[in-house]
Amino acid sequence: MSNEHAHAPAHDDDEHNPHLAHHFDTMGQQTAAAKLGMWLFLATEILMFSGLFLAYFILRMFYPEMVLEAHEYLSKWAGGINTVVLLTSSYTMALGVRSIQLGDVKKLRLMLVLTILCGCIFMVVKYFEYSAKFEHGMLPGKFYSAHLHGYEIDGLPHIFFGVYFMMTGLHGIHVAIGLAIMLWMFVRAGRGEFNAKNYVAIENTGLYWHLVDLIWIFLFPLLYLVK
Amino acid sequence: MAKVFLNGQPVEHAHEVHEHISPMSTYNAVIGALFVLTGLTFAVSFADLGPASLTVAMVVAFIKASLVVAYFMHLKYDDKYHLFVFLGTIIFVGIFFGFTMFDLKSRDALNDEQETFVRWKEMENAGKGLAVGVDNVPERRAKVLAEIEAHGGGHGGGHGEAGHGGGEHKTDAKAEHKAAAH
Amino acid sequence: MSTAVQSHDPHPATEPSYLVSKRGLMSWLVTVDHKRLGLMYLASVMFFFLIAGILAIALRTELFTPDQDFMSAQTYNQVFTLHGAIMVFLFIIPSVPAALGNFLLPLMLGAKDVAFPRLNLLSFYVYSVAAVFLIVAILTSGLDTGWTFYTPYSTSTGTAVITATTGVFIAGFSSILTGLNFVVTVHKMRAPGMNWNRMPLFVWAIYSTAVIQVLATPVLAITLLLLIIERSLGIGIFDPAMGGDPVLFQHFFWFYSHPAVYIMILPGFGIISEIITVHSRKHIFGYKAIALSSVAIAVISFVVWGHHLFVSGQSELAGVLFSFLTFAVGVPTAIKVFSWVATLYKGSIQYNTACWYGMAFLWTFTVGGLTGLPLSTLAIDVHLHDTYFVVAHFHYVMVGGTVVAFIGGLHHWWPKMTGKMFNETAGKIGCLLVFIGFNVTFMTQFFLGHQGMPRRYYAYLPEYQTMHQVSTIGSWILAAGLLWTLIYLVHSLFKGEKAPSNPWGGVSLEWETQSPPIEHNFHDTPHVHGSPYDFPEIDKSGGSAHH
Ligand code: HEM
Ligand SMILES: [Cu+2]
């Protein structure tokens, strides 16, 4: 959505601005529409994730001891490092938006690279976490087999790991999509498509990325920390 | 074009883009606060707060989230309608959570009272570590159990990938594994 | 006309209509024109209406005798499931918003297009992919869970649950994208002078619908995703055999699906508001009340979903709460019905086809809405739940409400969309057949249900036979009426008279442009100066001016 209306590079903001799609009257209208669209999209994302959070809370309510025991098997450190990484990436993304607000395309591209880098680190850490879980048979639902690997978790830990994989998996998919979008923004910035007066695509990318961060801010304590 | 309209109203300075640009110091302060708060939850998680730990963690998470939303996502300076959309969404999430939890909570109380509890109880199967379901459907439980046994240690992809092969099984020392997990 | 200054086409013949401005199949397949997309949706939803309608006739015919005739129990289960799922997800939900809404929203707002035209095209294709999934599900092993996909049956049955739910999941995204697009369009694309109090009520209705689509559909998405995962990996959230809670699934599902019934009916309300006021040539009674009651319904619809769980094992406490809240929906709904009736009062009513459908709606929807009240009464629902009473209730609101409004709207805007007039006499005959057929079919089902006939059975006790036969005959009349309607509408495309730009004397902006409209809707951006319901003639003669 963030890229709905960007076409060719341009420099000036008169009515024939090539960034302006035919059905809008002004750039202001176009930008406002794109941003409102993005916020509504974020609303749908929040509601979608809310279903998983609810599943988590209900699981806690049904089987409190099991959740507490099972969550001990998640690595606090891996989660913690990823939190710091993701927060940092949000910071660099915000700075990227700031750079283009000031018209600094070079710095924008730098910030995008840094953000992408953080995103990649996040994914790598996730990869190691996931492989450890796979190895120990801590898998969702009927694939759960940790007891065959010598881990005795009382109760129904297969549900916990089901929810764990659903939440972090869906979040991970969002991270991956975010990385792809940022890469694309990086390319477009290189083509000179953005300037201090036309950067709503960057802004929307940022909003999306911050949302991914927001969700992690809740995932992290709930899955890894809370007793 | 003489006049420009937005939302059905004339716009005075249509071509001006007035976006709020926060100073670097704001961003630095926010990220600093986020790190501190992360450290805080992390540290607190080692202390034994009991049931309060959920509340503490959630309060901290909400503060962190508000910082991100207000400053990184510029909601503080943005169109108020975006704030409305965002808060509205949170309210609907609240409705969703509130009613559902309310039902499940009050249902459990009732079930316990009338001893019509059908959900799997932790204590009854304690120690067996089996992924089994409610007590009043033994056949299905048997089926699930059989399925788990069938999948055994051999499936899941994790094995081959991590280089341990399929050889390691129940015989491995539990303690060693528990330690390795962390 | 007080609405617009540019009301007379200054250069009528110079610009071709949107139908012919570009030619060739490709120009349709990749179009971003909201009007063409509206027509494409119209064709698609009609196609699925036909398919699911044929399934319905098959069901009713099977029920002509108490015993099995030509369907086994298993086939019957599959047929009613597909009938419900296709009707709900591929027909009713996209029908009014995506077909008529797409066509009319920018026109009514005086805009050149919706806010995100390419997203609009995307959501059409997303819808098409969803349809493919559902068709694949039908062609492979079918689906026998009912349109509600309740666990644990849906996690254990051998039919194509994953394919079908994936289809519905995807259809949900199409719905979200359309809703998002419309909310932004209403906020950002209004013509000069078009403030919130000057928006046609159809726009208000589509706006409220869009808000629900944006807020509720994501929960459907995650519900179905969890169901798919439950079925494939057995994570144990919903399946009691794995330690889950099946009633939790029902909470998830109805958190979406009750608001979704308002996704279905609110646009219908919008159509009726337009039809009633234009064809009685009188300013709408209670403009603000109707507009805001749409918003109120949208909000309240999110807190009543538990009325579907009264006998599912929901706690009594929650049941009482949901029962009480459900009654609250009746208030804004009644406000609308009273306002429409008051609008008709002392109007100079033109009894043409669209208006006939409007009147039919007033009866059928009201019956449907009123029978919702006994169902929301906790104690009575224990008796009525899962009987034909519920079937009759929701067909009265969904068919008698939404479908009747949709067909009425189709007649109302047909000249605008196609540039052709249909035959009024044929239209009235069709309306009569639909109205009679519908009531004969479903009125009997209230009695059947009240006498204890459960829903979703392919065979029944002989005591019920007479009423089942009446109902089946009604369904044939209804089908005949719909087919008749299809025939004369298609006929009008080829043989119909050329439509004037404003055949009914409407005052909202879509009537200002030519029929069919040009590609960019208006030659010049219209400026709005007044209400969309100031009908000048009646103000002078009838003296019942409202402002
Ligand atoms: C006036 C407001 C309404 C009230 C108070 C109401 C109430 C109810 C209640 C209590 C039920 C549950 C019955 C049961 O399963 O035992 C129900 C079912 C249903 N209602 Fe309504 N309703 C209203 C309007 C509508 C509208 C406008 C629609 C759709 C356009 C609708 C569609 C449905 C459907 C589809 C079902 C059955 C779902 C199923 O089990 O398959 N209702 N209604
Ligand atoms: Cu309902």
TrEMBL record, chain A:
Pfam families in UniProt: COX3
Domain Heme-copper oxidase subunit III family profile residue range list: 35-227
Transmembrane segments: 36-59, 79-97, 109-128, 159-186, 207-226
Membrane topology reported for the UniProt record: Multi-pass membrane protein
CDD domains noted in UniProt: NorE_like (cd02862)
UniProtKB keywords: Membrane, Transmembrane, Transmembrane helix
Keyword Membrane attached: yes
Compartments where located: Cell membrane; Membrane
Family (UniProt): Belongs to the cytochrome c oxidase subunit 3 family.
Protein name in UniProt: Cytochrome c oxidase subunit 3 family protein
UniProt source species: Nannocystis pusilla
From TrEMBL, chain B:
Presence of keyword Chloroplast: no
Key words, A-Z: Cell membrane, Membrane, Transmembrane, Transmembrane helix
InterPro entries per UniProt: Caa3_sub_IV (IPR011743), Cyt_c_oxidase_su4_prok (IPR005171)
Coiled-coil ranges from the UniProt annotation: none
Compartment(s) of residence: Cell membrane
Subcellular location, principal: membrane
Chain residue ranges for the region called Disordered: 151-182
Bias (Gly residues): 153-165
Membrane-protein topology: Multi-pass membrane protein
Transmembrane domains' residue ranges: 27-47, 54-75, 81-102
Compositionally biased residues, Basic and acidic residues: 166-182
NCBIfam families assigned: caa3_sub_IV
Protein's UniProt name: Cytochrome C oxidase subunit IV family protein
Organism in which the protein naturally occurs: Nannocystis pusilla
Taxonomic lineage of the native organism: Bacteria, Pseudomonadati, Myxococcota, Polyangia, Nannocystales
From TrEMBL, chain C:
Keyword Iron: yes
Cytochrome oxidase subunit I profile domain mapped to chain residues: 22-529
E.C. designation(s): 7.1.1.9
Catalytic activity: 4 Fe(II)-[cytochrome c] + O2 + 8 H(+)(in) = 4 Fe(III)-[cytochrome c] + 2 H2O + 4 H(+)(out)
One Pfam entry name: COX1
Pathway field: Energy metabolism; oxidative phosphorylation
InterPro entries found in the cross-reference section: Cyt_c_oxase-like_su1_dom, Cyt_c_oxase-like_su1_sf, Cyt_C_Oxase_1, Cyt_c_Oxase_su1_BS, Cyt_c_oxidase_su1_bac
Cellular compartments annotated: Cell membrane; Membrane
UniProt signal peptide: none
NCBIfam families assigned: CtaD_CoxA (TIGR02891)
Functional note: Cytochrome c oxidase is the component of the respiratory chain that catalyzes the reduction of oxygen to water. Subunits 1-3 form the functional core of the enzyme complex. CO I is the catalytic subunit of the enzyme. Electrons originating in cytochrome c are transferred via the copper A center of subunit 2 and heme A of subunit 1 to the bimetallic center formed by heme A3 and copper B.
Listed name of the protein: Cytochrome c oxidase subunit 1
Organism field: Nannocystis pusilla
